[in-house]
Amino acid sequence: MAKLTFVGTGDAFGSGGRMNTCLFVETPDLVFAIDFGATSLAALNALELDHGEIDLILLTHFHGDHAAGIPGMLLDSMVARKRTRPLTIAGPPGVEAHLAKVMSAFFPGSEKMAPRFPLTWHEIAIQAPQDVMGLRVTTYPAAHPPETMPTSMRIETPRGKVIAFTGDSAWTEHMPDLAAGSDVFISECYFHAKPVPNHMNYPALRENRDRLKTKRLILTHMGPEMLAMAANVPEETAYDGMVIEI
Ligand SMILES: [Zn+2]
Ligand SMILES: [Zn+2]
User: Fold this and answer.
1) Is the pTM above the cut of 0.85?
2) Range of 100's domain?
3) CA 61 to ligand 2 center in whole angstroms
4) pLDDT at res. 112
């Protein structure tokens, strides 16, 4: 059993008043977050979820709406919360160096602070299934600006539940492998009709729907045009605070 809370289901720009991407996943073995965008601390607080319980944060790529909440979370953990629980942050190659730059840009001087809790960085090699704190994590190249080191991510929990997440990506030929046998496939769906580079649009998802062998498909990361159509599509669409169990 795993409980997934959609902490943030918005795009990068707060469309529809939604928060940036963050999923909070509670399992009997560990608590982890997938992505941690700029507004994720506020979103977690609004849902009365405690970032101090997170053992692991997995990052799909380096855009601010997916990773820019980390500096505030680390600073809060060090200064206000006096965290002692170990934390691991895992992401694409270069994750530690990238977040160090973001940390000093957001909170100049913070780079001199050393956490008093064990903080571990884990680089996830692309398309190389690996163990991350008992999770089986496989990432695939995503179709998104390469500077962000974009990945789609498949996560199998220690008890065999599978979460597949496109991250930010246009359709790729890896999506069927990402989805195969998953308990939930969470797909970004930025536009409803407009063809756009670097993001999934709804027609591409519909066209390939039968190739996604998943128990449950949920759309997220919707821009204004897709949000306006969300009630009219047959697929399940996520909203901030939505909770599912797999
Ligand atoms: Zn995004
Ligand atoms: Zn992005």
Assistant:
1) yes
2) 3-239
3) 7
4) 87
Does 244 fall in a domain? no
Strand order in the sheet with 31-34: 119-123, 87-91, 56-58, 31-34, 22-26, 3-8, 242-245
245 assigned to some structural domain? no
What's the 79 CA to ligand 1 centre distance in angstroms? 29
Distance 82 CA to ligand 2 centre (A): 31
Structure confidence by residue, pLDDT tens digits, 141-192: 999 999 999 999 999 999 999 999 999 999 999 999 999 999 999 999 999 9
In sequence order, the β-bridge partners of residue 245 are 3
246 within a domain of the structure (yes/no): no
pLDDT for 111 equals 84
Segments of the chain scoring below 50 in pLDDT:
none
Least distant ligand from the CA of 21? 1
Number of domains within the chain? 1
The domain that holds 112 is classified in CATH as 3.60.15.10
